[in-house]
Design brief:
Main location: cytoplasm
CATH architecture of one domain: 2-Layer Sandwich
CATH class of one domain: Alpha Beta
CATH topology of one domain: Alpha-Beta Plaits
Subcellular location: Cytoplasm
Family: Belongs to the eukaryotic/archaeal RNase P protein component 2 family.
Largest sheet: 5 strands, antiparallel
Strand order of the largest sheet: 2-3-1-5-4
Catalytic activity: Endonucleolytic cleavage of RNA, removing 5'-extranucleotides from tRNA precursor
Structural class: alpha+beta
Pfam family, one: RNase_P_Rpp14
């Protein structure tokens, strides 16, 4: 199967977010993914979830980046707002901002957090 050219691919937006928990406990990546897809399925249904194309791009130290389809940013924010519990821990998802690139989202909204470090990508610098 051929790869789609960039002009035919879905445009994405990247949402930088942080999890606010009681007693500053850390939440695991797998736990957050499970809750994200569970809430997405119950709020948007199977069709809406697949159209939204929500994907946890990076997550570390209760901060991360979620990618979604450009036309469904508001639905993705609604899904993130409905997450209240992750594995029995009470959480609040605070969306810091939306960007068109991962690098833009991390520079603007996740400054000082090592979620995505382009310097580690050796093939970019060569």
């Amino acid at each position: 199967m051929k790869i789609l050219p960039p002009t035919m691919r879905d445009n994405k937006r990247y949402l930088a977010f942080e999890l606010i928990t009681e007693e500053n406990t850390l939440v695991g990546r797998d736990e957050l993914i499970r809750e994200l897809f569970s809430v997405s399925g119950s709020l948007l249904g199977d069709l809406g979830s697949s159209e939204c194309n929500i994907w946890l791009f990076a997550f570390d130290d209760n901060k991360g980046v979620i990618s979604c389809n450009r036309n469904y940013v508001s639905q993705t924010r609604a899904v993130m707002a409905t997450i209240t519990n992750v594995k029995g821990k009470r959480v609040l998802v605070h969306v810091l901002g939306v960007s068109g690139t991962v690098l833009g989202a991390t520079k603007k909204y996740l400054e000082g957090v090592d979620v995505f470090n382009p310097a580690e990508q050796s093939h970019i610098n060569e």
